[in-house]
Write a structure and sequence with these properties.
alpha/beta, Rossmann fold, seven-stranded mixed sheet
C-alpha cells in the first residue's frame, strides 16, 4: 500500500464515522469507550514522567487521548496531529487552548518531542505502512514511543482490518532499539509496544 492510498482509505472510513457519530469514540471506530480507555491506560504506562513531558499524539482524532491525559493530571506540552482536517477542526473546538495540527508524521523533525504516541492508527494500514510509521515516530521522539495495534493473537478478527504479529513487531522494533517492551494483557485482541532511546 502506498501512503496516498492509506490516507485516502482513512479519509473515506473515518469521515463517514465522524458524520454519523460526532464527538464520540464511535467516530474513531472504537468498539467501546472502555476499550479506548484501556488502550490509553496501556500507552501512558510508557513512563512516569509523561505528565510533565513534551508529547506528540499522532492520529489524535478528536483529542480523546488528551481528555484522558488531563483526567490523570497531565500538565506538560501536548501536540495532536491528524491527517483529517475535519477531525482537527473538532478537536480545536473541544480543546481551545491546545495545539492541534493537520500534519503528516513525515513532516516532523528528529527528536522533536520527548514521547510520541500512536493509538488506533493502523487499523486500515498494512505491514509496509505500519513499519514505516513506527520507524518515523521513533525518530521523532527523544525519549520514547508508545503505540498499539490489533493483534494476530486475537480470538476473532474483522475483515479488512490490519492485525500485526506481536512477536514479529517486537523483533522489528528491536532492530531500532534494544529497549523494547511488549504488553498484551489488557485486551485479548490488542497489544502495545514501548520503545526507548
Amino acid at each position: 500500500m502506498h501512503n496516498k492510498d492509506y490516507v485516502t482509505l482513512n479519509k473515506s472510513v473515518y469521515l463517514e464515522c465522524l458524520s454519523k457519530n460526532g464527538d464520540s469514540h464511535l467516530s474513531l471506530n472504537w468498539g467501546s469507550k472502555d476499550s479506548q480507555d484501556k488502550r490509553f491506560k496501556a500507552l501512558i504506562d510508557v513512563a512516569q514522567n509523561i505528565f510533565v513531558s513534551n508529547i506528540l499524539d499522532v492520529g489524535c482524532g478528536l483529542g480523546h487521548f488528551l481528555d484522558f491525559l488531563l483526567t490523570k493530571g497531565f500538565h506538560g506540552n501536548y501536540t495532536g496531529s491528524d491527517i483529517l482536517e475535519e477531525m482537527i477542526a473538532m478537536a480545536k473546538i473541544r480543546h481551545t487552548n491546545s495545539m492541534f495540527e493537520v500534519k503528516n508524521l513525515s513532516s516532523y523533525s528528529s527528536h522533536s518531542y520527548d514521547y510520541v504516541f500512536m493509538s488506533g492508527i493502523f487499523t486500515l494500514a498494512d505491514e509496509k505502512i505500519f513499519k514505516e510509521m513506527v520507524s518515523m515516530a521513533f525518530d521523532v521522539c527523544a525519549k520514547g514511543l508508545a503505540f498499539n495495534s490489533l493483534s494476530t493473537w486475537a480470538p476473532q478478527k474483522e475483515d479488512n482490518e490490519f492485525y500485526a504479529d506481536p512477536l514479529k513487531t517486537l523483533e522489528f522494533c528491536s532492530k531500532l532499539t534494544p529497549k523494547v517492551v511488549l504488553k498484551h494483557e489488557y485486551l485479548p485482541h490488542d497489544f502495545t509496544i514501548y520503545m526507548y532511546k
